[in-house]
Each structure stands twice: as C-alpha cells, then as structure tokens.
## 1
Amino acid sequence: MFNLDSIIDVAPYSLNKSEKNALYDDAFFALTQHHYENCKPYRKILNALSVDPSIKQDVTNIPFLPVRIFKEQDLKSVEEFQVVKTMTSSGTSGQRPSKIFLDRDTSKNQTKVLVKVICSFIGKKRLPMLVIDSKVVLKDRKQFSARGAGILGFSMLGHDVTYALDENMNLDVEIVEEFYRKHEESDILIFGFTFMVWEFFYKKLKELNKKLPLDNGILIHGGGWKKLEEKSVDNNTFKSKLSRVCGIKKVYNYYGMVEQTGSIFMECEAGYLHSSIFSDVITRREDFSICDLNEAGVIQLLSLLPKSYPGHSILSEDSGIIHGEDDCQCGRLGKYFTVQGRIKNAEIRGCSDTFSEQ
Amino acid sequence: MTHFLNNKNVHYLLGGEIDATRLFVPYDNLLCDFLNDLSLQLRKCEVASSYPDVITFAFWCRRANIARLKEEYSSSHARLGLGTVFHITPSNVPVNFAFSFCFGLLSGNANIVRVPTKAFPQVDIICFAIAKVFENNDYREIKLRTAFIRYKQNEEITRLLSMDCNGRIIWGGNETINKVRQLPMPARSVEVLFSDRYSFCIINAILLNALEQSDLNRLVEGFYNDTYLMDQNACSSPHLLVWLGKESSMAKDRFWKTLSEVILEKQYRMTHAGASDKYVQFCNDAIELDNLHDVKVYGNTLYCITLNELPSNIDEYRGSCGYFYEYETEDLKCLSHIVNNSYQTLTYFGTDREYLLDFVVDNGLLGIDRIVPVGQALDIGVIWDGYDIVKSLSRIIDLQ
C-alpha cells in the first residue's frame, strides 16, 4: 500500500514530469485498489465501468468520481468507528452539502501536507496569524464545515491566532489594531476566504476610510471567485484594491476543495496555480478526452491524500486551462494552471421550466 | 373588458389592449384563413427558413392541416370561445408559445401570450410575421384580441393577468404550476395545465433486426429527433426503451450503434454541464440500481443502462442529453402495474398500434395519453397531454 510518509519530506515542487508520473502510477494503482476493496459504492461504479483495478494502468485512465457524488452518496473506505471527523461543504442553497469522512490517518495527512505546501511559500517559522472570519464557524468540532476545517487547518501555521470578525461578521477594528501593534516587528500571516476578505475586510475598511499598516502581512485566501465574479472583481483587482487599504503586498490565492482538503494548489508569483507532488490536475473535454496545453476543459483533480474516502481522483465542475508543466517562470516544477470558473450550466431545453428563469 | 398592463416590466411585442367583448366559433373560417396567411408569410420569409422549428410551425398552420383538424374536431353542440386566455409558455422552447397561441385562437378566444424571456430569434420572426398578416384589415377582429408580452418572472404581473382571464394555460413544470395556481382567477374560468410527464418507447426487436440499414437509419433518426433535439427534456421524449422480444442483443447493438453514428452525423453538441450531469447519474445508478445488468457508453454522448428488472418507480429515472434505460420483455403486461398517471407518450416501432391502444384501455391504465410512431414524439397538436385543448378552452351552448 502506498504510504504518504514515503514522500512527506520531499520538497513539494521538486519532482519533474517523469518522476511524478512514476510516483502517481504506483500510488494510484494502490489507492484505487484500496478504495475498490473497502468502499462498496466505489466498487460498484468501477464494475459498471468494467474497470479492473488489479490491472495497473496509466493514471489518466483511472476513473474519476464526479464531485457532486459526494453530495448524493455517503462514500467511505473505512469502518464507521474509524471516522474521527466528517467534513461538510457549505453547499449552495437547496443543495445537499458534500460529506467527507476522515479517519485519523487521512486527517493527519491533510494537515501535514497543508503545512508543507504553505511553508514552502512563506517559510517554516510560525507567524502571528489573523483570521478574517468569525470564531463562531468553529462551534462543532466533530462536524466540520469546509470553512471551519480550512480555518483550523491553516491555524496550524500560525500563533496568537486572532479572529478579525465578530459573530455578526463585523470587522472588529480595535482587535485588528491591537494585533498589528503587538506584532509590529514580525511578518503577519493573514488567512481568509476570498469572498469574506473582500466583503467584510476590504469593503469595511474602505467604508470606514481606514488604512491599516499591514505592509508586513502575507495573505493566503481561497474558496473560489464565484461571488466576486458577479461583482466583476478579478484577482488583479482584488490584489490592488486590498493593497490600497492595508498595504499588503504578498497575496496568495489557492484553489482546492473540501473533497481534497490539504493538497491545495497555491498561486505562484507568476500568477499560476501549481500542483505540488501531493496533487495533480488534468483538464478534459466534453467527451472526457484530455485537453491539450492551453485548451480550456473541465478540471480533474488528483490527490495522494484520501484514504478514508474514495476522493483521490475527482472530476470538478470548474473549467480551467493547464499552461505548462515543469517550466513555470517561478521555478517550481509540476503543472501550472488557471481556473476560469464554474462550467456553464447547460441551457436546459424542454418544457419543464416556465417559471424558474429570471 | 380590457387587459392592458401599463407596467415598465412588461414589454408588448405585439398588440396591447384586448377587446374580448366578442368571441369566435372554434375553427371559424376567419381563423383558418388567418393561420394559412401566417403560414404563407413564414414560408416566404428568408430568415425563417434557417429555423427548422419555425418551418415546422409554418407547416402546421397551413390550410390543409387546419382543415384536417377542423374535420376531426366536429362538435355536436354549438360552441364559442371562453373569453381571454392567458398563456404561460416555456422559457426554454422557442416556438411553443406560437402553438399555444394557435390553440387558444382556434378555440375562439382572445389571447395574451407570455413569450420566453430569452431572446430567441424565432420569437421575433414569428411575431413579425403575425404583425405583417395583421396589416390585412380582414383580420382586424383577431388583431384586437391578441397580445404577445414578455416579462421576467414576476408574481405581481402574473397575478394581474390571471385576475380577469377566462382561461389560463401553463406549460409546466410542476413547480411553476403550483406557484401560479396560488394566483386566483375569476370563479368561472378554466385552467389547462401541462405538468411534468414521463415518456417511453417500445421497439419490436425482431422487426428492427430485420430492417435494412437504410431503413434502420431512418428509424434511428426519428428516435434522435424525439430525444436529442430537446436534450431529452421534453415531456414526450422517451427515457426508457422497452425491447419486445427475447434475445434481442443483436437488435440492441445495431440500434445503439446506429444511434451513436447519427449523433455524430448530426453534430450533436455535448456540453460540459450535460456530460457532468450524465456522469453523476451514471455513478448514482451504478450504486443504487440493484438490477443494473450492463452499461453501454458511446463517446459520452450516449449512455445506455440495461436493466434486468423494471423497478416500479422507473418513471423517476429520467435521463437528459442522451441517457437511456433499456429493458427486454416478451410480454407488455409486465408494464401494466407500473404505469402511473405521469406516463404521457408511448413511441413505438414494429408493434400494432391497436394492440398498444388495447393494452392501455383494456388494462384501465392510469397513464399513457399518446401512442405515436418513433419520430413523432415532439409533434405537438390540439390534442395534447390527454386533453382536447380546443374543447377545453371553449364552451357549449346547449340547445334542447
């Protein structure tokens, strides 16, 4: 069986294409067999696809699960008693949330990998950390929302973790001011979800006409651009406007999903998302064939982490473009890509929709 | 009575104030002449020629077809329209509104038609043609009784229009019907509702297998039109294919293979969202269906799930964009216990239609309102969904 410990000390962006392929062919062969043996629904899907997991094959031929299936089915590859945490996605209104079952191992690996990936960007030293969110999202420690899990995961990277928003999502300027006065001499790690940072931090500061001296801050944010796209805020706008209210210069976006917590894709200095050795991306066309470089397609996400649930290969509902592999100008190895947003909802034809269209 | 909404959110594409003080007799000659002129107008319009759905509509309106309908209609009583009919038509089918209008008109009514919110070129083409025909003063009386409006979903507007209409047609789905039904109409008014329905197809395996390839191609093209033209979302598009006969694997293989070729030939455009939906459904089926026997996938545009046994709730398993279930049986009887009132259209090939009719009537089935050959699933008409729309939207003057 593939063991993550065998690569946990390898630098996250240090394997070239052929090294990574060799690793993934072995690891995915093992992971797929593991889930096939331990998760009955997963086994049924592979059987229906006539895929025999005991035959080793190219990682690109290993089936993926559609991300929505985690909303519709309970999928786990461990016994109930081994589940220590269940993570749920926020889920847009009316939808069932995703349910991800974690055992001790998978949960631990998520944290380890997250720390590895982030540290390679911001250094190993623990920094004082400001969270642009409210403490209330962490209420229930057994039942984690994706937001709560994200905050807790990232909190491992900091000390003096301070929450900038009160329970009503209002920015507590006093707390923030006290925090940066206390850590004037140090770099500061700021973490938040993209939309929250924009809505409750940037906009509030702007409204108050307040400038914070956070020049020594490093912001890491993720969670998707959907809500900001509606407001025509793109990554560049986000960075420049934010820098105007708090002087922050180091801003890193990340891409990831609750179904593959830990093995996130960080944005590099050149503006591309990167797959580390713990994760990979493939883009696919409408017929699920593999896209060429620079061709937009639906994003398939691979992760070496999921062992307690069959989430090692997932077809997202996001559209993206892979721009290259091993040759990003930032110097990191691995594929680098950008995300375009959600795949367009098909214009539903048929006579069952006279009302819902706005 | 007038029904003009002076509201900035309502855009009148055609007509305005409605004068419904006088009504027509169903299939009145004036109405038939008008539709024939509309047909001519559309058929000579160059832009229209590139829209097959507009052309289909134009042919439906032509004199010969309306005359045939009139003959089939034959009422033993004198009849007149009800008054003003308010039509809520599908937002995602470009020409359905025009058929709905014709049904309301042929019943003898004044009509307010809510057209799709989306700016389909077909809507403009048809409205323009109608406006053109209205230039002929002979049709003044119809013109005074016609309005085409567009508005974004707005309960207040729908409420105002419902308040004093004499008939209301709602083209589904169930959610829309339930919402609009909350909005009151006058006590003496009639509603024609098209709810969500389920449709399936029966094919005689032996006869299909006996077809020459060219005939099979024609049949399969018909099936393609029944399903892929509307991404399988029309209520009359089949989701299930029942093979009549035994050991029909050869027939099945030929059929699905030919269909996959037709899909290519017709250049059916698969979307990411459609591909994703189908894959999710496939995974759910693989997990949940205990009687799943086999899965055939042809290049993502065509999934076929072979079932060993028909679950009684098979009507809840609906595909889209080319996702089908198939089941083989020697005896139709096995279907009689599962047909409920959501079953609408049965498309058939190679079975005697009288036999199918007897199957429905003799077994007193709760559902199946239409039995039509493969290829005609989407052909809409005045008899639809189990209603005679013209009779539903007209009243009888009883004479003793």
## 2
Amino acid sequence: MKNTGILILGLFLATVTAAFAQDNISPRRKQAIDSLALEKVKDLSKYISIIGNKETQFSEANRVMDRAEELFAAGAEMGVSSINTKEIAYYKVRRYFERLMALNYDKVNITWYDIQYVSDLERQPDGRYVGVITVYQRFEGTSIETGMNYKDTTKKDITIYVEKKQTQIAGRTIEFWDVMLGDVRVTETSA
Amino acid sequence: MLMAVLVLLAMGACKSKKKAVEPAPAPVVKEEAAPVKVQAPAAVVRSAEEIAVEKLESQFASIASASNVTAANQSIQEVLAMFSNQETPILIVIHEEGGVKDYDEPTTIKKYLEYLKDTKKNLNYISDIRLAGGKVTELELKRK
C-alpha cells in the first residue's frame, strides 16, 4: 500500500514536471517564435501581391499560389469585402487566390502594412500556441478600357497557430515550429 | 699571478653565462617565424566548404535583390547545379539557447531559392554545410 502511494506520487510529480518543462520557454525563445509567425504573414503579403499583379506570368502565379496555400491550415478561409456592399464573402484560400488572379482589371496593386500582433501567441491546453495578427490591406485596381478605378483599405485579422512538430532529415529527428495561418477575417473596410 | 687567475676565472664565468643566455632567443625567433610559414599557405588553400559557402551567400543575395524574374531564375539554376538535387534539405535555425536549436519548418533548396526570389528577403546566413562528391547535400541556415 505504501509502495503504491509512492508510485502514484512519483507519477504525479513526473507529469507536473513534464508540463512545466513544456511551458518553460524563455522570453528570447518566445520572441523568436513570435517573429517567425509574423514573418510568415509578411511572406503571405508578398505572395498576394505577386498573384494579384497582372504582370506576373500565369505559371509563376500558380507556383506562388502553391507556396501561399502551404502557409494555411486546411480549410482556412479568406474574407473579401467591398466599399460598395456591407456583405463580406468568405472563400477557401485557394479559391480566393484564383479569384484574385482573375480580377478584371488591367492593373492591380495590393500592399499590406502595419502588420502586428493584436493578440499575443498564448499556449493552449492542447500544447498549440494561438494568436492573432492584424494587417491593413490597400487594394487598387485599374481598368484602362472602362476607366474603372477601385480603391479600398481593409483591416484583416489573421489567426495564427504554432505547434512543435518532428520530422526526419537524413536519418536525424528534427523538431521544428510549424506556423499555420487560420481564417483571415475582415474587420473594417474603407475607401 | 693571483690577479691573472682571477681575471681568467671571471672571463670564463662570463662566457658560460652568455652561452646559457644565448640559446634562449633562438626558439623565440623560430616561434615568431613559424606562424608566418604556416599562415601563408592557409590563406591560399581554402576548403571546398568555405568556397561553396562564399559562393552560395553571394548567390542568395543576388536572387533576393534580382531586378527581374529572369535574372533571379538564372541565379537559381546556377545554385541548383551546386546541390546534389533540388530536394536537398535546408534547415533554418530561428533561435539557439543552451545548445538547443529551434528550427523553422524544414524546406528544400528549390523552395528556399524561390522564397528568396518571391519575398526578396535574405534573412539567413549559412551556419553549416555538408558536401559529398563536390555537391551540397545539406545546408543549415541561421537568422542574421
């Protein structure tokens, strides 16, 4: 009976220690993970700009679409708004990229700015880190034939998931931080 | 006579002392000369790894700052020729603390070069390289 008690206490202490060790991330390490996730969003902004740019070759745009899609978690959606309607449409990210590439303008310019955390990455009970990054997107589309010129600025919130994973590289186990972007929600739209 | 003996003894003592002192500077001269002789060939002979790193660092910078897609693609092809294959793994260390490395998701050289071209960001430097048969088989990068 006494031995069983010691065993249970030992198991409890081992579990608590393991849980503490997982949480024990130094500020510098946390900062590196924060920066990694922020960098992924900045990468997405570059990809969106390339996909939307009418001067980008079709093959290049498709290749970049693949890279951009890889940044997202499966099933993630992108919100699309307009100053002409109050409705916000949501598309699966691949569909969003395809629509972006096919926009009926002669010139499209998309820039993201003020990319920053609005909700810091916090560890969840399942071990994942979740946070929210906000961005401002300036969209400008120009049609030479119709003379149509559309401009808007949207504020978007992107949910970020960070999880520690393992993979095998040349027979070695490598632990890495997997950053996945979730849904991109439109929170504001203005001219 | 006594004076003559004393003078001779004194001269003998001085001569011995000089001998004891004399060998001392010799090794000093040799020690000073030795590094010069070793350093000269080392500066000329560089390892294959050092040459590859220098070339890759330069090419990475060229791709990230290329003025157009064609120029970037040309540099990409030159870099790919240095690797054993396009799927050669690239590890990126985002942080290191207490000997523990934190990595970004591993990628391949082809994807990494395209990343440089698309984002125009050259954020990493080469921290480790592995060559086999004159080709790069693995590359580890680290955040600048």
